[in-house]
Design goal:
With 600 residues, the chain is mainly alpha-helical. It has 21 helices and 15 strands. The strands form seven sheets. The chain has a three-stranded antiparallel beta sheet with strand order 1-3-2. A two-stranded antiparallel sheet has the order 4-11. The longest helix is centred in the first third of the chain and has 25 residues. It is globular, with a radius of gyration of 24 Å. 55% of the residues are buried.
Length: 600
């Protein structure tokens, strides 16, 4: 297959739709390459810069919208919902079933959106940086800020490769040093690599971004990271890169053993060098920036959408039939799955979930609200029901504008606490990091240097889930894979199947609770079936008891994740040309403007 390539001296970037809305485009010519569809052509280095700076928007769309965030949230038992939207119903139903990776599946965008949009971002950076590297005129870095563009491009490469590593069992590395085409313009096969290789490549790109960005006086202005309000200079970009290294790398682990084996000393160093506060992006009413998962989870003007799953908010509930005679979380966990239904957490001790002094379970907490009966069809399982939903960002959903969380400092502090606990044991400093939210916001008993490490680790997991509830696409799912073993739906006492503590109450007493995934939950996804068909490979998938990660089920077994056995693929499966990317941008914008919130 022949491919259109970026030029060097002439910078003739291929045609795109005249309805594209990139700001700042200049010197546009009309070409008669296709008389039936006359299109504009980018002609300047400034145009190239604007094009590359739009790549993060594609990556944001790979993460933050209904696909794949909604199903990742339900698989992690962070939120609960039984509507079919975004495959949330199928992938969260119990017993768990395999993901249908067929290209014809109605909800195939669960895999296709993360793949296509991530590679769109990477392809944009690839084309833009190669054009600069191949410049023979000497004008590229006169007419555009190459240091800024390189630092930004490396950040996007780091983030996109890490996101692909988080989501897929394998993928392709794509940066400007890779030759996708030979001298004749024919595609050169590229190797599939496993998720840890992708993650380590991501760290390398982040490090390149840090090296270039540090000390940079340039600014990345409004519209690049959200609609307005973020004007990052070089030092900001360096800190942001460190934040995301610390934040995302631990989530790549598929099992507790993999998480144990990470280099936690490095993770601690990255966390300490990260952004000092929260980083929020600005929604613009879904013109170009919005956050569907935030919308569905935090909307409190409607009782229709996501509720908080008891497996996340129920751990500290102190009621039990065997104890005070009041039905509580442990009783719910011990019910047959089909018999479970919503229940009131009377007097829940965490003030974020149920307000202080509550006597009936209906007092709103600071971060969650009592929402009344669930509106999900009972025929789909009352175990999906919950009386509660988050409200921290309830001001966002009505107009889908305003602050959208990207990375919260409390998340980084808890990652730092985990890293320090794993590398040096319990200290008062670690206790203070946990107590910042646990005591100050939750009103829970303080931890001290004398707190057992197992109790402290459990508190970190709990705080991470409550503080970051439904503010990060996929994070509850990605983290939960490494926080415990696969558990049956009835829970258990003592150690979980991975040898980790089963859970503790607010006072540090062992309780019946599980921190890992429900058995049968896919622990990652195969590349989209559509792309496997392009590569003429048998489609494989994950999910179902016994097939969470090690073996495929349903449509076929995966190859061994070894390069020799796994083979190679054509760039056709992942490289997205400039003209297609620009059309995708316009399509996303049109879809966003015409969002219809529907229930099925």
């Amino acid at each position: 297959m022949k491919w259109l390539r970026m030029g060097s001296a002439a910078l003739a970037i291929v045609a795109f739709s005249a309805c594209d809305s990139l700001d700042g485009l200049t010197d546009l010519e009309v070409t008669n390459q296709n008389a039936a569809d006359r299109a504009r052509v980018l002609q300047t280095w400034g145009d190239n810069e604007n094009f590359v700076l739009g790549s993060f928007n594609a990556l944001w769309s790979a993460m933050a919208n209904g696909y794949p965030a909604q199903a990742l949230g339900t698989m992690a038992d962070e939120i609960t919902v039984s509507w079919g939207n975004y495959d949330g119903r199928v992938l969260s139903s119990e017993p768990r079933s395999p993901f249908n990776n067929s290209p014809s599946y109605r909800f195939n965008n669960h895999a296709e959106t993360p793949w296509y949009n991530s590679y769109e971002a990477l392809s944009n950076v690839y084309d833009g940086l190669r054009a600069i590297n191949e410049d023979e005129t000497g004008q590229a870095c006169v007419e555009s800020d190459c240091d800024r563009l390189f630092a930004y491009g490396k950040f996007v490469q780091g983030y996109a490769h890490m996101w692909l590593a988080l989501f897929f069992d394998s993928a392709f590395v794509l940066d400007e040093t890779i030759e996708l085409f030979d001298e004749a313009g024919d595609a050169v096969d590229q190797p599939f690599v496993d998720y840890m290789t992708m993650a380590n490549a991501a760290i390398g790109y982040f490090d390149e971004a840090i090296a270039t960005a540090t000390g940079g006086t340039w600014t990345i202005g409004d519209g690049i990271f959200g609609g307005a309000g973020n004007r990052f200079d070089g030092n900001d970009m360096a800190m942001l890169s460190n934040s995301f290294k610390a934040f995302l790398y631990p989530q790549v682990a598929r099992t507790a053993a993999e998480r144990d084996g990470l280099n936690w000393a490095n993770i601690a160093t990255w966390a300490q060098a990260g952004m000092p506060g929260d980083v929020l992006l600005e929604g613009d009413g879904c013109d170009q920036w919005c956050y569907d998962y935030l919308y569905f989870s935090h909307i409190t003007t409607s009782t229709t959408w996501n509720r908080a799953d008891y497996k996340t908010i129920g751990q500290y509930d102190e009621n039990s039939v065997a104890g005070n005679g009041v039905y509580g979380y442990v009783d719910w966990l011990n019910e047959a799955t089909a018999a479970r239904t919503e229940f009131l957490m009377i007097g829940h001790p965490d003030n974020r979930i149920v307000g202080a002094g509550d006597t009936d379970g209906t007092t709103n907490g600071t971060d969650f609200k009592f929402r009344g009966p669930s509106r999900f069809p009972s025929s789909r399982g009352t175990y999906h029901y919950s009386f509660y939903s988050p409200s921290t960002f309830e001001s966002y959903p009505p107009a889908e504008s305003g602050p959208m969380p990207w990375i919260l400092r409390s998340y980084i502090d808890l990652t730092l606490a985990e890293a320090q606990l794993r590398t040096g044991g319990m200290t008062q400093g670690i206790a203070d990091l946990i107590n910042n939210s646990r005591v100050t916001r939750g009103g829970l008993p303080a931890l001290t240097a004398a707190t057992p490490a197992t109790v402290a680790m459990d508190a970190i997991i709990y705080e991470r889930r409550i503080e970051g509830f439904a503010t990060c696409s996929g994070c509850a799912y990605f983290n939960r894979r490494g926080e415990g073993g696969l558990a049956n739906t009835q829970g258990y006492t003592g150690n979980d199947p991975a040898g980790k503590p089963g859970g503790f109450d607010k006072d540090g007493n062992a309780i019946q609770h599980h921190q890992g995934m429900v058995e049968g939950t896919p622990l990652h996804m195969a590349p989209p079936g559509k792309e496997l068909e392009v590569l003429e490979r048998r489609i494989w998938t994950y999910g179902g008891v016994g097939s969470e990660m090690a073996a495929g089920q349903g449509l076929g077994a995966p190859p061994v994740l070894d390069l020799a056995a796994f083979g190679k693929g054509s760039p056709e499966a992942f490289y997205i040309s400039v003209e297609e990317s620009l059309q995708r941008r316009e399509d996303r914008r049109n879809r966003s403007k015409s969002l219809v919130r529907y229930v099925q």
